[in-house]
Write a structure and sequence with these properties.
364 residues, alpha/beta, TIM Barrel, 8-stranded parallel sheet, two-stranded antiparallel sheet, 13 helices, globular
Length: 364
């Protein structure tokens, strides 16, 4: 395989962030040289709906003949990149308090329709962590409930409704972030439960959404000695391949959480954390910041690991097969033109969607 061909294949395993309301030259250069898998939008990229729709169209068509994913974290509550005139959803803990599967389905249907209206093709939701630590600084009211069965029941409804609307879902953060006492954006959480506790609590929602056909799962940056005494979960073959793939039987796409989080700051290896995550069994890495040199360096690190056979080419082939299957199922090759402002206004924040949000807000 030529180096150029290898570079174009490796790029499919990375989703990147970028700065500003338009695609910057650096991201265009990455897509041209490596053929990125997708981009992730944040508040810094958002001005108003028509601009988001144009931006998503531009991002999706960065690489001729190969549509890119346009992803976002749109959960509700404090994790919402898109604000009014999009519907503003209460935190998901309100949905858990309502404990109404039909309401969960109505919420997810409305959410999917608004995202798809502006050209977003993947949502990194739902959070399926069980909030067993009420003082958890990073999950908190992003969780559906402190009860595993409630999380499982409602998460399944959300996944099924999102995906019925053509928006692939992503269950996060495996193997379970709900009992953390520190924020993985700032440090590596230590979760010291024994395996049988994970089976009884943390894994219950993941098993439920896997049974429901969830398109993808995101692995968190967590130190879980019960499964790997050395490596964080997102770069642990024992966790990703042995546990998520093996014990839970998940065969969809596995994403990392953002690889720039400080939870991984002390995990320094020869080829970098992106290469380590792919070696562990993850299929796609997220580098969500705006340091384009760092994004390129991560790709080059994976290329070096493949060239010297530290990572076998079969691992690359496996990851690509999964990402290509996801794309074949959920993305049509043709990118639809952005909706105009009038058509967007009829969907975003509609009266129907506001009624759903008001039903949730009663439980907030």
């Amino acid at each position: 395989m030529s180096l150029r061909a290898l570079r174009r294949r490796v790029g499919q395993l990375l989703f990147t962030g970028f700065g500003g309301p338009t695609i910057p030259p650096e991201t265009r250069a990455l897509a041209r040289e490596f053929g990125l898998g997708g981009v992730v939008l944040f508040k810094r990229n958002v001005e108003e709906p028509a601009q988001v729709a144009e931006l998503a169209y531009d991002a999706a068509t960065l690489r001729d003949g190969d549509r890119l994913w346009v992803a976002v974290d749109q959960e509700g509550g404090r994790v919402a990149r898109l604000r009014a005139p999009f519907t503003e959803w209460p935190p998901m803990l309100a949905l858990g308090r309502a404990d109404d599967p039909a309401l969960a389905g109505r919420f997810a249907t409305a959410l999917a329709r608004e995202l798809r209206a502006v050209g977003i093709t993947m949502d990194f939701a739902p959070v399926v962590d069980v909030l067993t630590n009420p003082a958890n600084p990073v999950i908190g009211d992003r969780a559906l409930s402190e009860d595993a069965a409630t999380v499982a029941r409602l998460a399944r409804q959300i996944v099924e409704a999102l995906q019925a609307e053509g928006l692939p879902a992503c269950a996060k953060h495996f193997p379970g972030h709900g009992d953390a006492s520190v924020d993985s954006h700032h440090a590596l959480p230590l979760i010291e439960h024994p395996p049988d506790r994970f089976e009884a609590v943390e894994f219950l929602p993941f098993r439920e959404v896997i049974a429901a056909g969830v398109a993808s799962v995101m692995v968190g940056h967590l130190h879980v000695p019960a499964f790997d005494e050395v490596n964080p979960a997102s770069v642990s073959r024992e966790v990703v391949t042995g546990l998520l793939r093996g014990r839970l039987g998940f065969d969809g796409v596995v994403f990392t959480d953002d690889l720039e989080m400080k939870a991984l700051a002390s995990h320094a290896t020869r080829y970098g954390v992106f290469a380590d995550a792919i070696a562990a069994g993850c299929d796609v890495g997220l580098i969500c910041g705006t340091d384009y040199d760092r994004q390129a360096a991560a790709l080059e690190g994976l290329i070096r690991a493949l060239e010297d056979e530290t990572i076998p080419i079969a691992r690359l082939d496996e990851a690509l097969a999964r990402t290509e299957a996801l794309k074949a199922r959920w993305l049509s090759p043709a990118v639809p033109r952005p909706l105009d402002a009038r058509r967007l206004a009829a969907i975003l924040g509609s009266a129907e969607h506001q009624r759903v949000a008001e039903s949730l807000a009663r439980w907030a």
